């Protein structure tokens, strides 16, 4: 049997757990290198702010490091990190919502959106406006619905992986996405 590659170990919870037992620092470093960008983008989409996403991403990896030896291998390291990042992001958005309600101020800035090159400057402007509006509307969703929608639609995860990442059942993941889409449709009609 051939030796497992670092990429194989990062995809399989059991192999990653063995790697942690043998060389925790190398396993952690490989996990950070492989998933940092994905976790950052996820926290931007859920949290709404690139500057806050930097902090949330750091917090996610710090929490992962602190609990590294508690990784049970029941899921992939990616799913484990997504769950930590989602929980950190949801907690952040809830705290911000309470703060905004107390202060009556807008607390979120919006990330830059990549726009496909187009022949017309008007089309580019229209795409940016639409992307910005979609982002604002998604930020208005309840945190769990927002997280489920981002994972399913933007990250293109199957419902099973959405459920595992959020620590909920597959049915609850489907319900959260359905409710999020329903609310977005209503918001767009208004």
Strand content: under 5%
* Uncertain ranges: 100-120
The number of distinct structural domains comes to 2
Rounded average pLDDT: 80
CATH top level label of the largest domain: Mainly Alpha
Structural class: mainly alpha
Name the helix and strand elements from N-terminus to C-terminus, one letter apiece: HHHHHHHHH
Q: What composes the largest sheet?
A: none
What is the CATH third-level topology name of the largest domain?
Rna Polymerase Sigma Factor, Chain: A
Number of contiguous helices? 9
Question: Could you name the CATH homologous superfamily of the largest domain?
Answer: RNA polymerase sigma factor, region 2, helix turn helix motif
Shape: elongated
Helical coverage, percent range: over 70%
Quick one: how many beta strands? 0
Cα separation of the termini:
60 Å
How does this structure look, described?
This protein is mostly helical and 190 residues long. The chain has two domains: 1-111, Orthogonal Bundle (Rna Polymerase Sigma Factor, Chain: A); 118-190, Arc Repressor Mutant, subunit A (Orthogonal Bundle). It has nine helices and no strands. The chain has helices at 6-11, 13-22, 24-47, 50-66, 77-103, 121-140, 143-154, 159-166, 170-189. α8 (159-166) packs across α9. The longest helix is centred in the middle third of the chain and has 27 residues, at 77-103. The chain is elongated. The relative contact order is 0.10. Mean pLDDT is 80; it is low at 100-120.
């Amino acid at each position: 049997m051939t030796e497992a590659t670092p990429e194989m170990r990062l995809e399989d919870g059991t192999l990653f757990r063995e790697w942690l037992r043998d060389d925790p620092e190398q396993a952690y470093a490989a996990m950070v290198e492989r998933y940092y960008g994905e976790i950052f983008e996820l926290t931007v989409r859920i949290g709404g702010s690139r500057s806050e996403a930097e902090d949330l991403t750091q917090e996610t990896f710090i929490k992962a490091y602190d609990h590294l030896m508690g990784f049970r291998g029941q899921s992939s390291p990616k799913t484990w990190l997504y769950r930590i990042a989602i929980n950190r992001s949801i907690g952040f958005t809830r705290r911000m919502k309470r703060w905004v309600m107390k202060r009556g101020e807008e607390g979120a800035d919006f990330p830059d959106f990549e726009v496909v090159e187009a022949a017309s400057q008007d089309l580019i402007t229209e795409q940016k406006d639409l992307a910005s509006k979609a982002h604002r509307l998604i930020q208005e969703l309840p945190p769990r619905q927002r997280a489920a929608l981002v994972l399913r639609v933007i990250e293109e995860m199957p419902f099973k992986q959405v459920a595992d990442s959020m620590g909920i059942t597959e049915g609850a993941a489907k319900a959260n996405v359905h409710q999020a889409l329903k609310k977005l449709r209503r918001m767009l009609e208004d």
